[in-house]
Amino acid sequence: MQDRRPAYFAWFILPSVFLAVALVASLASLFQYSFREYIPGSIKVGDFTLANFGRMGSWVYLRVFIDSLLLSACTAAANLILGYPLAYSLVRSKSSLLKSTILITTIVPMFTGDIVRTYSWLVVLGKNGFINGTLKAAGIIDTPLELLYTPLGVTVALVQYSLPVMVIILAAAISHIDVAYEKAAASLGAGPLRVFWNVTLPLTMPGILSGTVTIFAWTLSAFATPQLVGGGKVNMISNMVYQLGFSNFDFPFAAVLSMAALALIFAILGLMSLGMRRLERVGLH
Amino acid sequence: MFGSVKGLSKARTFGASLTFALVAGTFGTGASAQEPLRISIWGGSWKDFAAENIGKRFTAETGVPVEYITGGTIDRLNKAKLSKANPETDLIFTTSHVGWLYASDDLYEKLDMAKLPNAKTLFPEAIISPFHVGTWSYVYTIAYRPDLVPADIKFTSWSDLWNPRLKGAIGLPDFDPSHIIYASALLSGGKTAKDWTMGQKKLLELKPNIKAFYNSDATSQEKIGSGETPVQVLLSGNAYHMMSQGIKINLVVPKEGAIIGIDTVGINKGTKKADLAYKFINIALDPATQTLVANKQKMGPVSPQAKVDPEIAKLPGLFTTAKQWKDQAIVIDHKQRSELLGDWRKWFTENLIAR
Question: What is the pLDDT of residues A171-224, one digit of tens each?
C-alpha cells in the first residue's frame, strides 16, 4: 500500500537526528578520554595509553561496581514487592477514592525535584529525624538507629524515587490482561489465589521483567540520592565518576568507569531483550 | 500620562504613546548599553558579596555594568578550558591552588602589578603567583557542636580528632582532603606537603571516627546543623554563618595552626577588557573593601590596612596581623598543593572514601 503521508513528514525526524548526533559526539569524546594519560595537577590529558583500563581491576573500583549492582538489585526487588499490589489495586479497584489515593501517593512525588525528595530523606532518616524521633518517643529505642549514610538508607530513598515508574509499568501490564482468562480459570474451580498465581501473575511477566530491568538500569546510574543520603560512605558508580573527574581531575579514568557502566547497562538491556523474546516464544499472552 | 492629544482619539493616543515608548526605550537602551565586565565566581553569598561590595562601586566609578557567571570551582575551570580560544569571562575568582591549574593551563594573563596600586600593601601571603592575587582568606579547621560533644572532650590539637570517643562523629570534605592529609602528615613528623605519605597510616586510623563526607558548603552546614556530624573539619566562614543562624558551634585553631585557604582573582587570558579587569581587582583589594570582607563576611582581609571591628578581629581563624599569619596559619604551598592534589584525592578516594 502506498504511503500517503506528506513528504515534509520526513523532516520531523530532525530533532531526533540532532539528539543522536549530540549523544554520539559526547560518547565519542568520552571514549577517546579513556585512552588518554592522566597528568596529576593538570586538567590537560596526555598521550595514548591503555593503563586506565588496568586500574579497573583494582578491588576498590570493583567493589564500587559490586555495591552498585547490589543496591540496584535490592531497589528493583523492593520496587516489585511494593509496586505490584499498588499497580494491581490501581487497575482493578472499583473504588475511585482508593484509585485516586494510590495515584496521588505514588505519582505526585515524581513532580517534586530530585534534590527536594532526597533532602526530605535526610530529615526522615537522621539521628533526630522522624523515624528515630518516633521510635524514641514510643520507648522502643534509647540510642538512635544509624539509618543515614548506610546502604539501607540509600536503598529506601532509591525505592521511593523509582516506585512511581515501576507502578506505571506494572499498571500498564495488568490493564492489558484480558479478564476472560481469569474468569475462565475461576469458572473451572480455581480460587482467587490460584487464579492470581497461575493466570494473572504469569500474564504480567513481561511487565514485571521490563519494570524490574528498567528500575535496575535506572538505579545503577543514580547520583543525587547516594551522593546526599550516602554521605560519601555509600558510593555508586556515578559518585565515583564524579569524585574522579570533578575532584581529582582524573578525566581519563572517570571516562573508563563511565564506559564500563554504560557497557554493563547495555548488557542488562540485552539480557532483558532476550528474556522478552523467550517469553514471547513461550506464548504467555 | 496617556491624556488625549488634540485631534487624536484616546485609543490612537495610547497607540502613539506606546510606539514612542518602545522606540525611545529601544534607542535609550542602545545608547546606554555597554558590554559588561564578566566575572566567573561561585554562587550564593560569594557572588552576593562581590556584587554588593565590589561590583556596585566598580559600576559607579566606570559606568560599566558587571555580569556574574556562577558555578562550582571545577565546573568553572572546565568551562574556562573549553572556551579557551574565546573566553566567556574577563575575571575569575577561584581558590589559590586551583588558580595554579588555570595558570598551568595558560588560562590567565600575567598580572601587571603596576596597575594594581592597592596590591603594594597586601600581606605577602596574598601574592600567590605572577597570575593571581588573594582577595580574602579563611581557614579550614576543627569545629564542633558543644551541645552534642561531651564537655570533657577538648580540642587543642589536630590529634584530638583521633580520640576514640569521637567514633562516628566526624565530617570531612570529600572535594579537597588536603587539610586532613596535611594535618596528619604534620602529626607524623612531616614538614612540607611533599611529606604527605608519612601521615597515611595515621589517617587510616581516623576511619572509625569518620561518620560522613560532605561535598559542598551546603551539605557541610546541613550535617553539622542537624548534628549528624557534630565535629567537622570546617570552613571558618561556614561556621560563622551557622553561628549567625543560632547554632552553637565552637571553632578552634589547634596549636599546630589552622589550614589557610585563600580565594584569589586572576584575569582571563585573551580578555578585551584588561584595563577594566585591573580596575575591578584594585577595588577588591582596596582597604575599604577589605574592611567589609572582615566586618561583613567574617573572612580574613588580605590588606593589613583594613579597619577591622575589634570584636570581629578576635574571631578564631580571622587573621588580621602579620603575627597571626606567622603563629596560627598553616600555609600549604599553593603550587605544590595544586600539583599534589590529584595524588591526594586519588589516595583519599581509594583508602578513606571507598569502602
Answer: 999 999 999 999 999 999 999 999 999 999 999 999 999 999 999 999 999 999
Q: At what angle do helices A114-125 and A130-137 cross, to 10 degrees?
A: 20
Residue of chain B with shortest Cα separation from A250:
B342
| DSSP state letters, A74-115 | HHHHHHHHHHHHHHHHHHH---HHHHHHHHHHHHGGGGS-HH
Residue given cell 475462565 in the structure block:
A184
Which residues of chain B does A67 touch, with a Cβ-Cβ cutoff of 8 Å?
355
Alpha-carbon distance A269 to B1, whole Å?
Answer: 67
Question: What is the C-alpha separation between B222 and B212, in angstroms, rounded?
Answer: 12
Alpha helices in B138-225 (DSSP H): 178-187, 200-205, 217-225
Residue B212 contacts A where some CB pair is shorter than 8 Å: yes
Q: Do A247 and B176 touch (CB under 8 A)?
A: yes
pLDDT means per 10 residues, chain B with 355 residues, are 37 48 44 80 92 97 97 86 88 96 93 97 95 97 97 96 97 93 96 95 97 90 94 95 94 96 96 96 98 95 96 94 92 91 88 83
Domain regions of chain B by residue span: 37-137+262-319, 139-260+335-353
CA triple B215-B221-B224, angle to 5 deg: 105
Asked whether this chain's domains B37-137+262-319 and B139-260+335-353 adopt the same fold, the reply is: yes
Right CATH for A54-280 from 2.30.110.10, 1.10.3720.10, 3.40.640.10, 3.90.226.10: 1.10.3720.10
CATH superfamily of B139-260+335-353: Periplasmic binding protein-like II (3.40.190.10)
CB contact under 8 A, A243 and B339: no
Four-residue CA torsion sign, B184, B186, B187, B188: positive
The CB-side HSE value for B272 (13 A sphere, CA atoms) comes to 6
pLDDT the model gives residue B214: 93
The H or E element containing residue A172 is: helix A151-175
Mutate to test the interface with A, among B73, B74, B247 (most CBs of A within 10 A): B74
Strand partners, B231: B144, B170
Q: Are strands B210-214 and B66-70 parallel, antiparallel or unpaired?
A: unpaired
Query: Mutate which of A247, A249, A250, A253 to disrupt the B interface (most B C-beta within 10 Å)?
Result: A247
- Rounded to a whole number, what is the distance in Å from the CA of A4 to chain B's nearest CA? 47
Specify the CATH number of the domain B37-137+262-319: 3.40.190.10
Q: Give me the residue spans of the domains in chain A.
A: 54-280
**Are B263 and B95 in contact, with CB atoms under 8 Å apart?**
yes
ipTM of the complex: 0.78
Q: Which of A248, A250, A253, A257 to mutate to test the interface with B (most CBs of B within 10 A)?
A: A248
Give which of B228, B81, B230 is closest to B143, Cα–Cα: B230
Contacts of B262 (CB under 8 A, 6+ apart): B95, B96, B125, B126, B128, B134, B135, B136, B137, B302, B334
Across the strands, what pairs with B133? B127, B265
Give tens-digit pLDDT for B95-121: 999 999 999 889 999 999 999 999 999
Nearest Cα to Cα of residue B116 among B276, B271, B279 = B279
